[in-house]
Amino acid sequence: MLSVYLSGEIHTDWREQIIEGAKGLDVEFSAPVTDHGASDDCGVEILGAEENKYWHDHKGAMVNAIRTRKGIEEADVVVVRFGDKYKQWNAAFDAGYASAMGKSLIILQPPEHDHALKEVDAAALAVTREPGQVVEILRYVLEGTLPK
User: Fold this and answer.
1) Is 148 a member of any domain?
2) What are residue 99's DSSP bridge partners?
3) Are the C-beta atoms of residues 59 and 41 closer than 8 Å to each other?
4) CATH number of the domain that residue 82 is part of
5) DSSP 8-state assignment for residue 111
């Protein structure tokens, strides 16, 4: 079984497209919490309220990091999606962490991000434009077959 961690933007259905496309493949997927509110507030909901927004966010980031580290460390392949909205510093961090751990890294990004992400792309084993390309890479890794 191939373990794949799906990191990155949470505003589109790219994860669902990959999971649907990979049906029938021996793949297990994991991901961060994609409910934006839950992800932002997990620290204060579990550890207690914070008046200062910095500490509110800091608590959430620390709790989320436990899940993220586990997902990346246990994965055979890490897919990081950079979307059109926001700066997604967390996605860049996840890509760097996965690269430092020697994980097979696939980046999914639009062409307009190529220059900004050139160092991230250089660390990846593949840079894709569409979720279907990620599925075809997974199929090739598991079955050695090319797209029809």
Assistant:
1) no
2) none
3) no
4) 3.40.50.2300
5) G
Q: Give me the phi and psi of 4, to 5 degrees please.
A: -125, 125
- Model-wide pTM > 0.90: yes
Interatomic CA distance for residues 17 and 20, integer angstroms: 5
Classify residue 21: in a domain, yes or no: yes
8 forms beta bridges with 81
How many whole angstroms separate alpha carbon 3 and alpha carbon 26? 9
Domain of 80, in residue numbers: 2-33+74-143
- Number of domains observed in the structure of the chain: 1
Evaluate the CA torsion angle 138, 144, 146, 148 in order and state its sign.
negative
Write out pLDDT tens, residues 10-49: 989 999 999 999 999 999 999 999 999 999 999 999 999 9
Length of the chain: 148
Structure tokens at 94: 């996840």
